[in-house]
Specification:
By secondary structure, the protein is of the alpha/beta class. Helix content is 29%, strand content 25%. The strands form six sheets. A four-stranded mixed beta sheet has the order 2-15-17-16.
Amino acid sequence: MTTRTINLPPTAFSATVRVPGDKSLSHRALICSAMAEGRSEVLGAGPGGDIASTRRVLAALGVELDGASVVSKGVAGWRRPEAVLDCGNSGTTMRLMAGALAAQSFTATLIGDASLNRRPMRRLVPPLEALGARIEVDEDGSPPVTVGGSGPLAGASTSVGIASAQVRSAFELAAVQASGPSEIDSPGGFRDHTERWLEHFGLGRRLTPTRFAVSPGAIPAARYEVPGDPSSAAFVWTLAALRRGSEVTTPDISLNPGRIGFLQIIEGFGAEVEAEVTGTVHGDPVGTVTVRGRGLFGTDVSGELAVAALDELPLVAVLGALGEGVTRVRDARELRSKESDRIVSTVDMIRALGGGAEALEDGFVVIGTGFLDPGEVDSAHDHRIAMAAAVAAAGVDGDVRIQDATIAGISWPGFYEQVEALWS
């Protein structure tokens, strides 16, 4: 494993940063392009390992991918894979591809690395089975996931108990291949990228804030311009919020309402936030965000806001530790099913740097002292823990050493260099 040492200047900074293409949208753009017949373009796709996993799986199904170009015979023309489909560390690849493959006459098996093979996949089974799909997971609900071979799908109405965009998207990518209309409902707080795109293509419509109707039909070949990833931008937003007088601007960022809960959270901590919508990608808003550091005070995060900022909650712990007062995160039990048990790994990160943190069943509590100590953080082979530890170095007078630091390349190759360049 590679250890990276981070030591950041004690001064404020001002910078404009273009972050990598949005992971959620990159996965969806590649999969929708592969399901379409003809040639599509996916411009600005994320460069990380997770997106490479989706490309690799689609190529194994006979889809031609060359840079931004995606050429396919359509989902009905996908070929039977010669081996299991390796999704690497990417849960999004596995869950969305399970839905896309659900109507195939052949069966396909999706596997992942050691981390992904521990993550929950049973939640895919009821909604896909409602459509008539055949899907199997391991006895404990983990991968491998075997799907397909069931024959034609039929429209269905279903409800899922968690606000999971991945589960909803898996159902919707299967439902467009069914013989009749379908509907899905769930608790709120999810990202609705897939649904906005399907509505744009005339393949769906929103019935209520949480209930979506899918109309069967072919996803068309299209051009996708993938905006910047707000979950990646959150790391530089946090660095600006941590340093009074600092400012960072991130242009061309996805501003999907299900993706910007973290901006509301850092405003609650005391940072100044400006967000402006400047365009859309197939009905999904895109814009520019500027964050300025004004001092930090503890806050509480729960309910739909915790769900909407789930990927950014390790950064909430960093903000809490380097602010004043107590920060509480609740209603985030889903953190336990990420690349690591992120409740445990987040608390361990703060404690490794001398901070006060306590795990809860569905979140954590952090005591803010305004500073952290030099130390060594185990990333738990989780890219967001490694990256959050690097951000925490902004509140440390000395070195932060990160074990298994290269895991950050899953979402942002060159992340550490970008952080250090903010002061250049």
